[in-house]
Design a protein that fits this description.
alpha/beta, Rossmann fold, 2 domains, 15 strands
Length: 303
């Protein structure tokens, strides 16, 4: 099935890597921001996409609302040009943590975002490691949520010295299933920390489950945002006698001074994927790995 690849400038590097692996040309949308911050999205080189399939690539990372509107307007533009199908590749899906509603048995606010993007023309979604896979049921069109546990297990083996004797750590209960699977793939023990939240972006450790006889700890989670929870756990592991502490996170939101806090923390090294560009946040302790091959493989199988 023939298709065309499109992206917006904020995720150009990842989209370009995907295009190279697929050996496909990549077209960049023209984004104009007016003085009142309203946006206009154009595809100046296109006259018609009648009966064609379009693949639109962009993560909706901070500024989340701007990138969401860009994506929706770009999708609408492709639809207006005649695309018969639009595949929305959103490696980091903003608002995926807003899965709960204060009203019982009602969808969370993320449903509004999903409905908006579907109304804009998206017929199929491709995401990476959604924060809560349960929100998949809120999509009215098909969705592929790519899990990168195998990828992370192999990456650990190439990046962590003495990985055979390491301890895989979940910084909170939400990462339990993910780290248990990766620990099994790597072949080592694991710990699960529990926390309580006392402010919107502040947490404290209240317990730990499991035992590990190791000097190397590997903290894994889907998202690292302010870094508060992961850093608390890393510092606690150091107090418990772990000599080397590594972090592997899929989506590097890294907001509110996270970069500086990581630099001052007990982490030896933190590895994050390129679902979100670092944009100056790469440091001696923060390194980035490329998951374009995983996304390219998913698209290749689709077409």
């Amino acid at each position: 099935m023939p298709y065309q690849l499109f992206t917006l400038a904020s995720n150009f590097d990842l989209a370009q890597q995907i295009a190279k692996k697929l050996d496909q040309p990549l077209q960049i949308a023209d984004v104009k921001e007016f003085a009142d911050t309203e946006l206009e999205i154009k595809f100046p080189e296109l006259q018609s996409l009648k009966d064609q399939t379009s693949v639109l690539i962009q993560s909706t990372y901070p500024p989340v609302n701007k990138h969401l509107i860009e994506f929706a307007l770009a999708s609408f533009g492709l639809k207006t040009l005649g695309s018969k199908k639009i595949v929305g590749v959103i490696p980091y899906f903003g608002y995926s943590r807003h899965d709960k509603n204060i009203f019982k048995k009602k969808p969370g606010p993320v449903k509004v975002i999903i409905d908006m993007l579907e109304a804009a023309g998206i017929n199929k979604f491709v995401t990476v490691q959604l924060h809560n896979p349960l929100i998949i049921s809120e999509f009215d069109v098909s969705i592929i949520d790519i899990m990168v546990n195998d990828f992370l297990a192999n990456l650990i083996k190439s990046q962590v010295p003495d990985w055979q004797n390491a301890c895989i750590v979940a910084p909170d209960e939400g990462a339990r299933e993910m780290i248990q699977d990766i620990a099994n793939k790597v072949g080592c023990g694991h710990l699960v920390f529990s926390k309580e939240r006392f402010a919107a972006d502040e947490t404290r450790i209240i317990g730990v489950e499991g035992t590990c006889k190791s000097k190397t700890a590997i903290i894994i989670d889907d998202i690292i945002d302010t870094g508060g929870t992961a850093i608390h756990v890393a510092n606690e592991l150091k107090k418990q006698g772990f000599e080397h502490i590594y972090g592997f996170f899929v989506h590097p939101v890294l907001s509110a001074g996270a970069k500086e806090r990581i630099e001052q923390s007990a982490f030896d090294k933190v590895f994050v994927s390129n679902t979100i560009p670092l944009n100056g946040k790469k440091t001696a302790k923060i390194d980035q790995f490329d998951i374009s091959s995983v996304l390219a493989k998913s698209l290749e199988q689709m077409f």
